[in-house]
Amino acid sequence: MSRPKDAKELLDRLGAKWSPDMDDFLAGKVDLSQMRCAVCQKKPCVCPEFGSPEYFALLDKRRGR
User: Domain of life here (predicted)?
Assistant: First the structure.
């Protein structure tokens, strides 16, 4: 396996999930309040309570497990 060229590629390889609005946020086109959640993909976030079985089920679904 080749060496990652940058931090984003490394995190992608590790399975990190990003908000679909991350590029616009980093470009200054939207502010944090306008970003969708990286897990549930909703704005505002509607994730179950962090650490709950429902949260981990949603996280597994997002990661394709």
Answer: Bacteria
